[in-house]
Amino acid sequence: MVLRGRRVAGAPSFFSPGWDDGCVSSTRRLSQDHLRTMLAVYRSGSFHAAARHLGVSAPTVANHIHLVEDHFGVRMFERSADGTVPTVAAHEIAAQIATHLDEIDRLIAGDLRRSPTGGLMVSLGGPCEFVTEQLLPALAGDTVRLPRIAFEFGDSRRMLAELDAGRLDLAVVSGIRPTGAGVRAWPVARERFWLVAAPGLTDGTEPPAELDAAGLIAYDDHLPLLRRYWNTVFGVDPRFDPTIVLPDLVAMKAAALAGLGVTVLPSYLVHEEVRSGALVRLDRRRDPPSSTVFLAAGEPALAARPPLLRFAELLVDRITGYQENVTQ
């Protein structure tokens, strides 16, 4: 990439006391803090999020970005309805400075020996239920090795869109295999789905068309979990309207426990209730419908930030290990 006719020389040059190769339009020399602010905006996708992360005011962030833009003579970010979008120049500069600033932060924090991800800030998105029930327990005992993590919750399609837009560093997705030359994906878990209800509500022997007599609890009007189960187990599409629509799996479980209907939920969310008898599996198939859960990351981000790759690999190891040790 060319800036004012001069190639961006690489991050070490940004810190050189006498660096001046003709592409600087500002008389004020950049500091590491200015570059760190630019990187925080780049990673978080927001001036306000960067300000919270750095512990400074939003006007300070805006001033630092102005100085960086003035220094290089190019715009770093564009504002859009979806937030702050990095320009080509921002992508190029972030790729060159990220590793160096992360390593400097680790050295200053004294984390170089004890934590391979020290000083790293990671934005990680995924389904709230999987993060709560599977990912977080899998990280128990790894406090020293963890970076600072900002979680975002949402469905798989939205998480992939956020990852693609650069607003997430890592995304946990289910039912969708992340594809594309710029995405790396690791399978980390197998999500199994059970048809469950409160004891006595139904014995599960009715034809699928009659199960709705007991009432059906769905995630939304498109019946994503119920449709997958009906297609796989019964070989038909569900042809009914749900009794209750709850856009939250934990709320769906609460409704089932209250005897308000039949539903389909991931086994990790209800296996304790099934084991205790609070819920009953209506179909004891040995091979229930299932989907693969992936951890996804952008290849450019992994290449530019080795600590991010190390953290992703740690997540893969811990989640897969946790899966092997829990009963589902």
UniProtKB/TrEMBL annotation:
Pfam families: HTH_1 (PF00126), LysR_substrate (PF03466). GO terms for molecular function: DNA-binding transcription factor activity; transcription cis-regulatory region binding. It comes from the Bacteria. InterPro entries: LysR_HTH_N, LysR_subst-bd, WH-like_DNA-bd_sf, WH_DNA-bd_sf. PROSITE patterns: HTH_LYSR. Keywords: DNA-binding, Transcription, Transcription regulation. Residues 30-87 form the HTH lysR-type domain. PANTHER family: HTH-TYPE TRANSCRIPTIONAL REGULATOR, HTH-TYPE TRANSCRIPTIONAL REGULATOR CYSL. Belongs to the LysR transcriptional regulatory family. This is Putative LysR family transcriptional regulator. It comes from Gordonia sihwensis NBRC 108236. The lineage of its organism: Bacteria, Bacillati, Actinomycetota, Actinomycetes, Mycobacteriales.
